[in-house]
Every structure is written in C-alpha cells, then in structure tokens.
Design a protein that fits this description.
With 268 residues, the protein is an all-alpha fold. The protein contains 11 helices and 2 strands.
C-alpha cells in the first residue's frame, strides 16, 4: 500500500480511538454543544442583541458562530495536540516508528479523524441550534460556500498547529495542563464568549494575531445579519485579512511540524 492508502486506512482506527476516550469526547466533541445550550438557556429571557434599527438576534444565534469556530479549534488543535503528545509519551509513536508506517500516513490518519469528527460535531451543533433553540440557519448558497471555505481552511490550519503544539509537553500526562489553558484563553480573547470590540485595544490586537479570532469573525459573517459587521473592528468582516492570517498560520504550522515532529523526543 502507498502512504496515502495506508493513511486512509488508519482514519477508521483513529476515529474509534477518539470516541473511546471519554475526556476527549466530553471536553472536545460535546463542549461547544453544551456551551450553546448553557448560553441559550441562561439568556432565554434576555432582550435580543441589537445591531441597528430593526436588526437583532437572540443569544443562541449570536453565540453559534463563535462556537462553530471553537469546535474546529478544539478538534484540530487541542484534541490533536493532546493525543499526539500522549502517544509520544506512552511509546506509541516510538513503536510506530519501528514499523513500515510512513509519517505521512500517520498524519493522514490523524487529520482524517479531525475532519470527520469536526464535520459530525458541527452538524450536531447546527441541528441543536436550529431544532432546539430555533436559530434560523442561512438559506443563501453563497453563505454556505463561505462557511465551507472558512471551515476547511480552519481545520487545515488547526490540524498543523495541533501537530506542532504536541511537541511542547515533555510528558503525556502534562499535555492537557499545557495545551488546554492556551486554547481556553484564546476562546475568551477571540470574540467567542465576549463581544470582540468590548475588549481593550491592545488585547484585540494581540488576539488578531491568532487564527480563532478570524475563524469566529468569518463564521459570524455566515450566520449573522450583515448589519452585525458594524460590531467588528473597522465596521467590516475583513474576510480577506482573515484568510491571509489563516494561510500564514497554516504555512507556519506546516514548517513547525516538519522541524519538530519526531517519532520520539530527543530528550526523552
């Protein structure tokens, strides 16, 4: 089998392993869905969020875009980073390095798992938002095309960053404590839980360096009325700049993967 075929064959194995880890399922797969439910119920009696005369959305609709972006970050960066760090620590990678399995096949298996689980996760998130909390999903094909483009670019970027960040923890048991706080802080400063423009300017500038801020903004351009662009920095969605930032991180992450990934830590 060639590396691509071997990698494709590993996707099923990786998906099974993913769903056999209760902590990964809860804190990664179910987390955005639980957060959507919590915010929707907590603010169910609050007034809708206004974006101008006659333009408003409820809290479930407002939080949905950021949680879609969060789902991509959690599955691609957090889950992948913790998973690979754990496999490096428990000797799984070292054993795989002694087999004919190419590194490319290993990556294809991991990234394929992220693509599948993220797609299912987002589908459930959108279904819950629409069927349970009455969120009106877009009916415009152009918006769904934008959604697909942002999601695919976001998944690719978050996957390479997850592989790269897996090199940070020296031990697998420290992976969660090392990676999860980084991801959690990014959620709070990237406009997922708080309106982005309410943050201090310096914090907006710092958050704008990272991918989640642009994924969240891009998803808001899909699910929120156009009038909400006035609530973004500069009064616009700035999709082109967001794409450039994501592509920049994709390239940087890919280079970091090539430089740092080893079947075993040199300092192990």
């Amino acid at each position: 089998m060639n590396p691509v075929s071997m990698g494709t064959a590993r996707i099923t194995y990786e998906i099974r392993s993913y769903f056999r880890a209760p902590d990964a399922v809860f804190f990664t797969f179910l987390f955005p869905i639980i957060m959507l439910a919590l915010f929707s119920v907590a603010f169910s009696s609050a007034a809708d969020i206004q974006a101008g005369p006659g333009v408003s959305v409820d809290y479930a609709t407002y939080y949905l875009p950021g949680l879609v972006a969060t789902a991509i970050l959690l599955s691609g960066t957090q889950s992948l980073g913790v998973d690979i760090a754990g496999e490096r620590s428990d000797g799984t990678l070292k054993r795989l390095g002694g087999t004919p399995l190419p590194v490319l096949s290993y990556f294809i298996g991991k990234i394929g798992m992220v693509v599948v689980t993220t797609a299912v996760q987002i589908a459930i998130l959108l279904a819950v938002a629409s069927l349970v909390f009455g969120v009106d999903l877009p009916t415009d094909g152009a918006r769904w095309a934008r959604f697909a483009g942002i999601a695919l670019l976001g998944i690719a970027t978050c996957c390479v960053l997850g592989i790269a960040i897996s090199a940070l923890p020296r031990e697998g048991r420290r992976a969660t404590a090392t990676i999860v706080p980084i991801v959690l802080v990014l959620q709070f400063v990237s406009g997922v839980y708080l309106p982005f423009t309410q943050l201090p300017d310096w914090l907006q500038n710092a958050a704008s360096v990272f991918p989640l801020r642009w994924m969240a903004s891009g998803m808001r351009s899909v699910f929120l009325p156009d009038a909400f662009a006035s609530s973004e920095p500069g009064g616009a969605w700035n999709l082109t700049l967001g794409i450039l930032v994501l592509v920049g991180w994709l390239v940087l992450g890919a280079v970091a993967c090539l430089v740092t990934f080893r079947w075993n830590r040199k300092d192990a």
